[in-house]
Amino acid sequence: MFKSIVKKLMATAVVAASVFLAVVFLGVAIFYALSLKLTPLGAAAVTFGLFALVALIVALVFLKGDKHDEADEEDEPEGLMGKIIHIVRERPVVGAVGGLGAAFLLLRNPALAAIVASMVADRKMDQGGYSRRRRR
User: Fold this and answer.
1) What contacts 105, CB < 8 A, 6 or more positions away?
2) Residue 106 and residue 98: Cα distance in Å, rounded?
3) DSSP assignment letter at 71
4) Which of 62, 75, 87, 107 has its CA 20 to 30 A from that of 10?
5) What is the pLDDT of residue 135?
6) For residue 133, how far is the Cα from the chain centroid?
7) pLDDT of residue 70 exceeding 60
8) Residue 124: partners with Cβ closer than 8 Å, 6 or more residues away
9) 39 pLDDT above the threshold of 70
10) Measured CA distances, 6 to 9, 19, 20, 30, 63 (Å)
11) Stronger pLDDT, 92 or 56, i.e. the higher one
12) What is the mean pLDDT of the chain?
């Protein structure tokens, strides 16, 4: 079973590498064909424009069926925390990037990290999350 999984992974990697090389050499062939009639800079610009156009068409074709009905979406909640949670649930990549940005900001500024930690601790104390030890 393990060998078949490894063989499938290797075959997928070989196919992906072959497709990548085919696209790269297609670009080189187009560039050299255009450089016979244009300057090298013009040929590079036309080749780039051609590949950008193909990428745009492929993106539009694949993302066309990804439309959501407006009636199916939930209404955005009120308040800052509610909106943040809604964005993170709807777009997890945005949430991950925002979380990494916040972590970077807190690591760069220890005073800000201390303020956030004290706010979290105060909230826990208000909610009764931390139990107080009884002295005898």
Assistant:
1) 112
2) 12
3) T
4) 62
5) 52
6) 46
7) no
8) 130
9) yes
10) 5, 20, 21, 36, 32
11) 56
12) 77
Token reading at 82:
């509610």
Question: Would you state the structure tokens that stand for residue 28, as one six-digit string?
Answer: 């080189």
For CA atoms 4, 9, 11, 12, the dihedral sign is positive
> d(Cα 28, Cα 30) in Å, to the nearest integer?
5
Q: How far apart are CA 38 and CA 28, in angstroms?
A: 14
Contact 72, 66 (CB under 8 A): no
H or E, element range at 62: helix 40-63
Cβ–Cβ < 8 Å for 100, 106: no
pLDDT digits (tens, 9 = 90+) for 3-21: 888 888 888 888 888 988 8
Beta strands in the chain (DSSP E): none
What does the alpha-carbon distance between residue 75 and residue 21 come to, in Å, rounded to a whole number?
46
Whether the pLDDT of residue 132 is over 70: the answer is no
Neighbours of 103 (CB within 10 A): 11
